[in-house]
Specification:
By secondary structure, the chain is an alpha/beta fold. It is built from 15 helices and 27 strands. Among the domains are: 130 residues, Rossmann fold, CATH 3.40.50.980; 98 residues, 2-Layer Sandwich (GMP Synthetase, Chain A, domain 3), CATH 3.30.300. Strand 10, helix 8 and strand 11 form a beta-alpha-beta unit. The relative contact order is 0.09.
Length: 511
């Protein structure tokens, strides 16, 4: 069987005393658990979830940040035959209400910080709430500890298929509500094994995870490959610049994963270890960094950076830079297709394009989603003739490396010209006074669309619009230079630190 609960059972049977998880809490406490002990608790919690009303095929909603409780809830949901629905831990009541209405969870697992939001989101529905903390009193129906202590380990009934949905992940909404991507047990395991093999994970590897587990990156690129390789994961409550290298040294980390934002924060920090002070042999990252940033990070910290590209609907998988191939050839190169994954560049009519031609990146693999939950129209648009259409634009070079250009929706067309927002952003970020930026298209009565840059200055900067536009004019064609520049103290972010362009577009539309 290729079900997720079998992955954990296999690891616990093979290495019951192996350290599985060390959790680094916000208050500095650390908690460690072995594979055998963790699996025992998961089986007991699964029996408890069944007792509070979770049946096979129902949804178990996890409204939690990184924690031992998240890990137990995620794996217990699968042990009980349910579908895990991880949600953004900082979601508002309105956002969570939409998810609850759309997926109709049989239970919500949350913590004290999320309890009031969960209650409000349920709008009176009699959905049981299980808290991660002890001492819940009358505020919830049960706690994880109570369910673990109150039930014997669940015995499986064997009525399961590896083609069943395992995880329901809600994508970031831009102009509409998020869609729920359904990933199967077989697909998740296939994806996790693809990453584990590409990264050459071994039982002695120790992986540091500071990105949120409710995101597909943290879940399938980071957590699942650890279990498949029977290694050890050190889970931080969240990313912290001041704590990061301490975790790396103290826990003898060998594998790490970040996204571009935290990489830049580490680069901007004052102190870091010399290369010989850690054992990290590789670090994957998502979201493009400049070649200069990659070189600076690798030189300063002695950590090889490996670019990964994928999307929620593909389980975060698609392409990876070869692990020991040296620096990537060119800005925003995203590597080659992973083994067992087909990635093509196609025109609007679906025809494959020649090397150097820009088109949509499409993916074919057993790891892609089954479809969108309760949305046949969106499923048909995304899955065509066996290929997942990513909505990302890119091209393949003569060496077989793929390059990301932009999201289809991030292409701006002033006076009919094509402008990739990422190209303008890359130039803006090379200005020494620009800390962050986002480029979007806005309506224009003459040109149909205008290029607008939203910019965060570095501390102490007095950078003005004319100076920034003149700088862009030295590096870009005139039609690509932002005609509107708006300076801001900060930009809205998603849960994993991306600039939330959806929020910016919504705000612009409201104007």
């Amino acid at each position: 069987m290729d079900r997720l609960e079998d992955v954990l059972a296999e690891a616990a049977a093979a290495a019951p005393t192996q350290e599985f998880l060390t959790f680094c809490a916000a208050d500095g406490r650390e908690e460690t658990i072995t594979y055998g002990a963790f699996h025992e608790q998961v089986r007991r919690l699964a029996a408890g979830l069944r007792a509070v009303g979770v049946d096979r095929g129902q949804r178990c909603l996890l409204f939690l940040p990184n924690s031992v409780g998240f890990m137990l809830g995620f794996w217990a949901a699968h042990e009980a035959g349910a579908i895990a629905v991880p949600t953004v831990a900082s979601a508002s009541a309105d956002e969570l209400r939409y998810v609850c209405k759309h997926c109709e969870p049989a239970v919500i697992i949350t913590d004290q910080a999320g309890l009031a939001t969960a209650r409000e989101a349920l709008s009176g529905r009699p959905t049981p709430i299980v808290l991660t903390e002890d001492g819940a009193g009358e505020s919830a129906d049960a706690t994880i500890a109570q369910l673990i202590a109150g039930f014997e380990p669940l015995e499986r009934d064997g009525a399961a298929s590896d083609e069943d949905p395992a995880v329901l992940l809600y994508t970031s909404g831009t102009t509409s509500r998020p869609k729920g991507a359904l990933l199967s047990h077989r697909g998740c395991r296939y994806t996790g094994e693809s990453f584990a093999q590409h990264l050459r994970l071994r039982p002695q590897d120790r992986t540091l995870i500071c990105l949120p587990l409710f995101h597909v990156n943290g879940m399938l690129l980071q957590m699942l490959p650890v279990v498949l390789s029977r290694g050890t994961m050190v889970l931080a409550h969240r990313f912290s610049v001041s704590s990061y290298w301490g975790w790396v040294a103290r826990h003898e980390i060998t594998m790490a994963h970040l996204v571009a934002g935290p990489v830049r924060l580490l680069l901007a920090s004052e102190a870091g270890p010399a290369p010989q002070e850690h054992a990290v042999r590789a670090m994957t990252f998502g979201l493009p960094l400049t070649g200069e940033e990659i070189e600076a990070f690798e030189t300063r910290f002695g950590v090889p950076l490996t670019m990964a590209w994928g999307l929620t609907e593909s389980g975060a998988a698609g392409t990876l830079m070869p692990l020991y191939a040296g620096r990537r050839p060119g800005h925003q190169a995203i590597g080659r297709p992973m083994l067992g994954w087909d990635v093509r560049v196609v025109a609007q009519d679906g025809e494959e394009l020649a090397d150097g031609e820009t088109g949509e990146l499409v993916i074919r693999s057993p790891g892609v989603m089954l479809g969108y939950h309760r949305d046949a129209e969106a499923t048909a648009a995304a899955l065509r003739d066996g290929w997942l259409h990513s909505g990302d634009l890119g091209y393949r070079d003569e060496h077989g490396y793929l390059h990301f250009v932009d999201r289809v929706k991030d292409m701006i067309k002033p006076s009919g010209e094509n402008v990739a927002a990422s190209e303008v952003e890359r130039v803006l970020l090379t200005h020494p006074d620009v800390a962050e930026c986002a480029v979007i298209g806005v309506p224009d009565p003459i040109r149909s669309e205008a290029v607008k840059a939203l910019v965060v200055r570095r501390d102490g900067s007095t950078l003005e619009t004319d100076e920034l536009r003149a700088f862009c004019g030295e590096h870009l064609a005139p039609f690509k230079v932002p005609s509107i520049v708006e300076f801001r103290p900060a930009l809205p972010k998603t849960a994993i630190g991306k600039v939330n362009k959806g929020a910016l577009r919504t705000e612009q539309a409201a104007r």
